[in-house]
Write a structure and sequence with these properties.
The protein has 241 residues and is of the alpha/beta class. The protein is built from six helices and nine strands; from the N terminus they run E-E-H-E-H-E-H-E-H-E-H-E-E-H-E. It has one domain: TIM Barrel (Alpha-Beta Barrel). It has a seven-stranded parallel beta sheet. A two-stranded antiparallel sheet has the order 2-3. The two termini are 27 Å apart.
Amino acid sequence: MAENSKIEWTTHTFNPWIGCQKVSPGCDHCYAEALMDTRYGKVQWGPHGERKRTSEANWKLPLRWAKQANGTRPRVFCASLADVFDNRVPKEWRADLFSLIEKTPEMDWLLLTKRPENIKKMLPQNWEMGYKNVWLGTTCEDQENYDRRWPILRAVPAHLRFISYEPAIGKLSIIYDAQGLPDWIICGGESGKETRYMEPQWAEDLKDQCGRFGISFFMKQMTDKKPIPENLLLRQFPRAA
């Protein structure tokens, strides 16, 4: 869950638990809900939904990945079927997750959330300026959510911060910020049923802005996974802290 991820910007995907609820328009066509709730009925999504911890066998996978790293620094996306900073998750589970992260310094952990306002109060006591193997990210599907979520994430101590502009459902512009800019931006159009169209110009403008500000830019996909135009074929990774 999963041994090797199909997500282009990560090596592995690890889900310590499953379950979430929608918090903004980017969640409207949530693939995790469609898969885990609607299709398989494993968990109930929504404000009254549950969170299910995954198996002990699954929790052992990152330890194996770390042993097999051999200096390659695999990236681990956590969590694709949940949210690490969801306030409905038992705090003991999150403590176990941070303990696991500490035990695997050979890998970089990508913690992506739509709830950056919860991060500070849910970090472990020994976080200080951040674990060196943790990249903190927040999803910003449009300008409104970037303007609200990025300043919150920017204020959290971390060695590397990133933005997931996916699904891109509105234009997003980056302006110079003397207090700090993201280290990395992932850009991607929506896929699946009832997709909302991402204007290619949004991605092109954002790529150009990242170039001006020294932000690494990763073009993940166009709407409905159509071919990426040559002028957008840029898949950069930030230099790990």
